[in-house]
Amino acid sequence: MYKILTIVGARPQFIKAAAISHVIRGKYADSICEDILHTGQHYDDTMSGRFFCELDIPLPKYNLGVGSSSHGAQTAAMLKGIEEVLLSTHYDGVLVYGDTNSTLAGALAAAKLHVPVYHVEAGLRSFNRDMPEEINRVVTDHVSSLLFAPTQTAMQNLRNEGFKEDNVVLSGDVMLDNALHYSSLPTTHYPLPTDFILATIHRDFNTDHPERIKNILSALNRIAEQYNTKILFPIHPRTRKQLETFNIHLSPLTFHLVEPLSYLETLGALQQAHLVLTDSGGLQKEAYFCGKPCVILRPETEWVEIVDAGAAQLADADPSRILDAANHLWGFKPSPPTDFGDGHSAEKIIEKILL
Ligand code: UD1
Question: How far does the centroid of ligand 1 lie from the alpha carbon of residue 69, in Å?
């Protein structure tokens, strides 16, 4: 029996891990078993606990409870805790997801102990080293034994960095597996406004700069006014804190402010939203998978396929670009995605690991 340790810590990783965990406990239950380690990077119930229940993932065997701190302190605490687990229990491999500090810590701790690292969502590049996530991605890829690239662009990025074809697999995107699976189930009922745009902001380069956050919010206000609609605004704890720090108030006449949505609530909201505006990588894709257009509140994106398909536009934090993009995309219905696999990425990943 192959024994794998899945390392998660931040909200998007619980969602990605669900796809693979279901496959491990289903079709491959006789050949592979999984323990889950939660670093504790996210800890509020709305950011963590509720996903395990909603997505039916086993509760973590280990929870390091590292909480929030500076990048160095947080990553160091994770490294120490993960190393202790890997030294006390034998695992044949470690699975890490995406590009958070938990991904980096999991990959580094395992690689140094010569435990094979499997990176799901490998090869993504924004080519912007100001993003902590870009550093996490690059380092994680370079210490991984098997790299699972979700798209051809990710494959090409890895080829350009000299990776051997043997170590790199075009797996497709486990988030598409999830979107296809969960959209076919009844959506979670959630009190939504009758007519709305869905917006989220959580990236440090937006939340930590008052000018950028104010610019984005003023553009959102203008769009809501122009289309006589509301902004459904699930708020990340970091964003809530920064709005308080900068003394920014959101008018309830325009902003329908709610706690971070669960995964099923997000899918439900996407089905009804006119448009999505976000700086989240995950929500960009979820919008695309649900056939909704998206304004990307960043200067660049790793998910270039969505922009190339005409389903999203980059607008950074520039109010006139945000408005132009919203006007351009309003009413547009993106075609189903073709560049993110066939909805069976999780199976491909486990088959390759077991080869
Ligand atoms: C992290 C990831 C980011 C991912 C995002 C998803 C890194 C470097 N960034 O960003 O790639 O898109 O998760 O949400 O790993 N906080 C709480 N409660 C929580 C979690 C966070 O209050 O449960 C607050 C704390 O003030 C914390 C801040 O949010 O300092 C930021 O949290 P952190 O995990 O450092 O980064 P995210 O912005 O969530």
Answer: 10
